[in-house]
């Protein structure tokens, strides 16, 4: 029997654009994901978030499902364009009201709300390449904290700035679909600036626990080959956010080949959110053009996953999570950790033994990391529901709960029932 620390925060995560739908309701303005998903050829089969899981209307049912699973915490994101339809100025009361109702429903069900302020749905009027956007983010952050800060204890500024910067502006596979390496670095810098100004706004409002969620991808291979990709994916964000507001020297020297970045307004955080899915396997290959999401990595090859991958073609490797958590606690001591996303897409079924095996392996890895000294406070599974998986549309299903996209009916999968037991015993048999 493996038991987790007392008070361990078991939960699940979602994101606004992936589940809410109701894109034209309650005064919501367009986001870059509305524009992108409605542009032909950008998402699988032209899927959009117009309806998604219709969570905007069905949130009471979804909160009831969470309560039935015994979730202790629920990580959701706030759609900035519901609150500021054109990205600045006075808040839209109907948008604020929606999150107010959601938070109240969670608290009534004894579920702790963990609010992410930005999970990729930027108001379409804004652009992360613009140096004024971090200020806009800080204003929006202050608005949200003023409204929900009496009930929401844990705040996350950004979800996965690496993806916003390098998939949104490097490869262009995500909104806004820009493919320009220099812009990707500029955007990374503006996102880190926005994070820090957001932290400042949250502290000024008296927020209790302030965090940032990063997608961290261990690089597997010879250190000669892995150091730069690790710098670009991981240390580019970890060092400034957790150490001192400065880019690591090797990363700064690399960025200087593309563009000049200024200083960051460093603010420390209370908790690091870790999103972990897989590792990248790398090898030296003089013929390789590198990777369009890792500018300047020519001569490095990204190798295929080993073993049976998930439907995303991501290698299943729980050891990567264990080692990552230990690495973080050694290299960035004193910052508590929470897994804010981990989970898997598998072919659609209700009896999802594959997902149970995936989660069981990763929960054990987390327990091992705690044994090895990692200060891990919680584990939020991605995702509560099947949802709009960005450029892959509705084809990839990550839910503990199945969603029928014709009827919008929710059906808890075997993994949901299994997870209920894990939470109830705070451990694994
Ligand atoms: C992460 C995102 C999340 C979801 C999972 C599968 O990168 O934060 O929204 O799409 O991947």
Measured distance between first and last alpha carbons: 4 Å
Radius of gyration: 20 Å
**What is the H/E order?**
EEHHHEHHEHEHHEEHHEEEHEHEEEHE
Bound molecules: beta-D-fucopyranose
Short description:
The protein has 429 residues and is α/β, with parallel strands linked by helices. 40% of the residues lie in helices and 16% in strands. It has an 8-stranded parallel barrel with strand order 2-3-4-5-6-8-11-12, surrounded by 6 helices. Strands 7-9-10 form a 3-stranded mixed β-sheet, covered by helices on one side.
Q: Which SSEs are present, and which pair or pack?
A:
Layout: E1 2-3, E2 9-13, H1 16-19, H2 32-37, H3 55-69, E3 73-77, H4 80-83, H5 93-108, E4 112-118, H6 133-148, E5 154-159, H7 161-171, H8 181-205, E6 209-215, E7 219-220, H9 223-244, H10 249-255, E8 271-275, E9 280-284, E10 300-302, H11 318-331, E11 337-341, H12 353-371, E12 376-382, E13 401-403, E14 410-412, H13 414-425, E15 427-428
